[in-house]
Each structure stands twice: as structure tokens, then as C-alpha cells.
Amino acid sequence: MNEKGKAPPSDEDLIRAALGGDEGAFRELMERYKNRAFGVAVGITGDADEAMDVVQDSFVKAYYNLKEFRFGANFYTWFYRLLVNQAIDRWRKASRSRTVPLDDRWLSGEATSPEAAHPRTPEELARNRELSEALTRAVAALPEYHRAVILLREVEGLAYEEIAEVLNCSVGTVMSRLHYARAKLKEALKEFKEG
């Protein structure tokens, strides 16, 4: 409910309005999902600038393909399929030419991690930074189909069925990819559990 006691329009209401020429309706859809979309895109591409481009390109593609949206389906899932595919394509192109690590600003010390704003002890800060860097490297080292499933599940909190729809695969494939991705991350980060 908004301040006038009226429920906000559903995604389908906004899609119908956008298809009828109401650009404000599509803008409202973008506002609803842009932050979550950016989180997914930056998780896959590993670069905030690339992620912004991916989000923008995905919304443009969604706008021009809106007439293909099947009413009764979930807009979020439909849009995220476009987004993940755009992000994976962008990551593949960038990874062929990239020569610097994903978090080069953190590694060079030019920027600090968000937790550095609330330092505890120097040892905890150093350990958290090492863990953060190791996690970033471990996620970046995953194949894109493992990275996408981990981000959609662990960051976005999507259900297995939603991930399967976004990635256009079976729920069993999602579960299998999650199992292997988690095992790889666990192996890559085992020194932090043991130490």
C-alpha cells in the first residue's frame, strides 16, 4: 500500500501500461529491479562499470522485447534471464582481454572495503580483508554457469525453480551446479575455516 492506501500496480499492470505507450510504467519497473539487477550483474562481471552497462543494456532489451512477455509468467524471472545472459556475455568478452584482477583497487590499497569503515582490531580487519579477497577470487574463478547459479541463489535468494527458469535449465541441473560451485568455494576457502 502507498501513502494513499492504494496498492502499487503489479508488474503485469505496469507491463500492460508500457505496452500501451506509457513510458513511466516501464520506468517504474526499472526502479523496482535496478538495484537487484546491478547486484547480480556486478557479481557476474566483477566490475561495477561493466555491471552498469549490463543493467542498462538488459533494460533496453527488455523494453524492446516486452511484447514477447507471457502474461502469467514472472517478470522478474523473465528479466533476470536477459540480465544473466547479458552479464555472462560481457564477462566472457572482458575475461578474454582483461589483464588486471577484478578488485584491483582493493588489492592496490587505493580503496578500502566497506567493513574498513568500522574497524575492529587490526588482526580482524586484516583477516576479513584476506577472506573478502579470497572469496572474490574464488567466485571469479568459477565457470560462469557456476557463478551465475551461486549469485542467483546466495545473493538474490531465488528459489531453485526460479533459477532454473532464469538459466533455462532443469532444477536438477541447478542443484548439481550449486553443489559443485559450493564445493569449489569451500575448497578455495578452507584455509580460513582451518586457520
How would you describe this protein?
The chain is built from ten helices and no strands. The longest helix is centred in the first third of the chain and has 23 residues, at 23-45. The chain is mainly α and 195 residues long. The radius of gyration is 19 Å and the shape is elongated. Helix 2 (23-45) crosses helix 7 (144-155). Helix content is 72%, strand content 0%. The chain has helices at 11-19, 23-45, 48-64, 75-97, 104-108, 122-141, 144-155, 160-167, 171-188, 190-194.
Overall radius of gyration: 19 Å
- Average pLDDT number: 82
Number of helical stretches of at least 4 residues: 10
Biggest beta sheet attributes: none
Helical residues, percent: over 70%
Class computed from helices, strands and strand pairing: mainly alpha
Shape: elongated
The fraction of residues assigned to DSSP E strands is under 5%
Helices and strands, in order, run as: HHHHHHHHHH
Euclidean distance between termini CA atoms: 49 Å
Number of strand elements = 0
Low-pLDDT parts are none
